[in-house]
Amino acid sequence: MARATRSSNTSTRQDDDLSLQEFSSEDNAPRRKKVQSAEVGTDILKGLAELAPATSLTRLAEHLAMPASKVHRYLQALIASGFAEQDSTTNHYALGREALFVGLAALGRLDVVKIATPQLAALRDELNETCFLAVWGNKGPTVVHVEQAVRAVTLVTQVGSVLPLLTSSTGLVFQAFMPERETRALRDEEVSALPHLLATDLEQQAAAIRTQGLHAVHGLLLPGVNALSAPLFKAGGELCGVITMVGSATGFNADPAGAAAQAIIASAREISQRLGGLRI
C-alpha cells in the first residue's frame, strides 16, 4: 500500500514538473517573440544603413533575404516610431530621425569626437570659418560634427553628409593615409566615373599629403569654396578621422603655408596627441 502511495506521489510530482515546464514555455513565448522581433527590426535598420541613402522595398528585401511582405510590415512599425522614413515621391525607404539620433549618441562616445569637438570650436572661433570632423563610414568619409562659422552667410555642411574620396580635401586625406584595402572599392568606383584621374597622379598627390600632413583645395568639390584638411591619428599611428576647414574663396585663403593651415595643423596635432597618436 505504501509502495503504491509513493508511486502515486512520484507520478504527481512528474505531472507537476511537466505542467511547470509547459507553463514556463508558454510564459516565455511572448518574450522570445519580442526578442525575435527586435532582431528582425535591427537587421532591417542595418540594411537601411548599408543601402543608404535610400532603397526600394524590393532591393532591401533581397539584401536581407527576407520576404518583402515581412520587411514591409516591420518598416511600417519603424516609420511609426521614427526610425525609418519613406519618400512620398520615390516610395524609397531610409533611416529616420530617431535612428540618426541613436547613431549620433553612439558616435559621441568615440574618443575622437569627444576630443576633437572643443578643438574644432576653438579653431572656428579663431578664424571664423566652418570646421568639421569626418570619420570613415560604410560609404566613405562621413561628417559627424560641424562647427558653423558665425556670419551672415555660412556654408551648409551637414552631419551625416558623405564626401567623395577623390574630389574633396577630406576624402583625399583619407585616401592618403588609410590602407588601400579599405579605400580600393570606393576609389575604383570614383575613378570609373572620372576617367581623367590617373593612378600615378593620385599616388603622387597622396605622397605629398603624407609629407605635408595637410591638403588644400580651391573650388574642387564646390566652385568658389576653399578647404584645408588635416589627419587625426590614434595610438599605433592609425588614422581615425580628418578635420576640415571650409570657407568662401573670396574670404578664406587656403594657402598650405598660411596662418589657417598652421592653425589646423596645430589643432590636428593636439587632438592626435591626446588620442595617443604622435604621427603628425
Overview of this structure, please?
This protein is 54% helix and 17% strand. The longest helix is centred in the N-terminal third of the chain and has 49 residues, at 2-50. Mean pLDDT is 83; it is low at 1-25. It contains nine helices and seven strands, in the order αααββααββαααβββα. Helix 5 packs antiparallel against helix 9 (259-275) and helix 6 (169-177) crosses helix 8. The protein has a five-stranded antiparallel beta sheet, with helices on both faces. The chain is an alpha+beta fold and 280 residues long.
Topology readout:
Layout: H1 2-50, H2 57-64, H3 68-80, E1 84-86, E2 93-95, H4 97-107, H5 111-127, E3 130-137, E4 140-147, H6 169-177, H7 180-193, H8 199-212, E5 215-218, E6 225-234, E7 238-248, H9 259-275
Antiparallel strand pairs: 1-2, 3-4, 3-7, 5-6, 6-7
In short, what is this structure?
The protein is of the alpha+beta class. 54% of the residues lie in helices and 17% in strands. It has a five-stranded antiparallel β-sheet with strand order 4-3-7-6-5, sandwiched between helices. It has a two-stranded antiparallel ribbon with strand order 1-2.
Counted by DSSP, the helix tally is 9
**Average pLDDT rating:** 83
Quick one: overall form? globular
- Helicity range of the residues? 40-55%
Strand content: 15-25%
Provide the descriptors you would attach to this structure in a database record.
280 residues; alpha+beta; 5-stranded antiparallel β-sheet; two-stranded antiparallel ribbon; 9 helices; 7 strands; disordered N terminus
